[in-house]
Amino acid sequence: MDVTAADPDTVLDALDRRLVCALQVNGRAGAGRIAEVLGVSARTVTRRLTRLQQTGLVRVVRMPAVEDAAVGALLLRIRVLRGKADTVAQALADRPDVPFVDVMLGGQEIGAVMLSDAGARDRLLYGRLPATTAVAETTAHAVLHAFARADQWRSGHLGEAEAAALAEPGPARPAPGGVLLDELDRALLDRLGEDARQSHAALAAAVGTPESTVRRRLHRLDGAGLVRTHTTVDPRLLGLAVDANLWLDVPPGRLAAVGAALARHRQVHGVFATSGPANLMAAVFCPDHAGLYRFVTDTLGPLGVGRAETTIVARAVKRAGVPLRRPRTRT
Questions:
Q1: Is 46 helix (H, G, I), strand (E, B) or coil?
Q2: Residue 140 and residue 6 share a domain
C-alpha cells in the first residue's frame, strides 16, 4: 500500500514557520517589513522566502473575491469506485471553478468546493458526474453562511503584536454592484492569481504599463477587497499531520453560536453552515490522530454538537486554486 509522507528533507524550522505565518497574515508584505517585525535581517528573509517559493513548498496567490459568493457555493462529497479517486480528483482540479479538491482517507471519497453559476453547476452535477462510470454517488451541500474561510487561517507561529504589525488595514466593503473592472484590472488580478508576491515593477513589465499605474490600480482593487491572498503550504510541514472535515449536526438555535466559536479556534481553517443532513461543516488541522480525538471531545463536546461525522484528508490535490505537487510516496 502506498503511504504519502512529507519529505523529511523539507521540514520547516522555527524561522521558516514564522515566515509562513507572516505570509498568511499579509501575503504581499515586503521582505524588509517582515524582517523588521520578526527581528531578523532582510537578507535572511529574502533568502528563506526565495527557497520556500522556488521549491514549491509555499505559494502565495490571490484568492477569488468570494466573501459573498461563498454563500451558495457547493461542498461536494463524491464517492468513487476503488482505484478511480486520482482520475476523478484530477478532472475536478482541472476546472477553474473548483478551487479546492481533496482525496479522503480510504480512496473512495473526494471532497471539493465548487464556485460556479447554475448552468455550469447543473452540467457537472446532472451531466458529467453521473455519466462517469467511476462515480458511484455525489452529494452536494450548499453553503448557507461562511463563519471562517481558508484565507483567514493562521498557523499561530507569530505573537499577536507581530501579526498586528504585519496586517494590512481591512479593505472597505465594495459598493453595491461591485467594482467595474477593465482589461488592465483583470490582467493584474490574473497575474496575482498565479503569484501574489510579484512586485509592482514585475507586474508593470508583465502587463506593459507604468509602475505608477500598477500601484494606483492595485490600491483601488485592494480597497475593494479584490487582492485578498492565500498562502498554500503542506500543513505537515507546520507540525499538523492530520487534516479532517467534521460534518456536524447542531440544534438550529445553537448554529450561529457554535459556528462562531469554531471559527475562533486556532486549529480550524474553515467553518460553513450548510444544507443537507449535517448543518455545519468544520475543517480542522491537528498535530496527530490523538489531537483530533481531543478536538472532538474537548472542543465539540462542550458546544453541544448532536452528531459528528469525521472524514480525514489523505491527500490535498488543489487548494485555493493552486494544484499541489504530490508528496513523495513510500511503499
A1: helix
A2: no
What type of residue is 191? R
Distance between first and last Cα of the chain: 6
267/156 Cα distance (integer angstroms): 9
Q: Total structural domains in the chain? A: 3
- With respect to residue 4, please indicate whether it lies within any of the assigned structural domains: yes
pLDDT in tens, 187-242: 999 999 889 999 999 999 999 999 999 999 999 998 888 888 889 888 989 999 99
CATH number at residue 85: 3.30.70.3460
**Strand ranges (E), 153-289:** 229-233, 242-249, 268-274, 280-286
Q: Give the closest residue to 184 by CA, choosing from 165, 159, 198, 204.
A: 204
Average pLDDT taken over every residue of the chain: 88
- Nearest to residue 103, comparing CAs of 246, 270, 317, 281? 317
C-alpha cell at 187: 490582467
3-state secondary structure of 285: strand
Distance CA 274, CA 74 (A): 9
213 DSSP 8-state letter: H
Rounded CA-CA distance 273/255 in Å is: 8
Domain identity same for 253 and 136: yes
Distance, CA of 295 to chain centre: 21
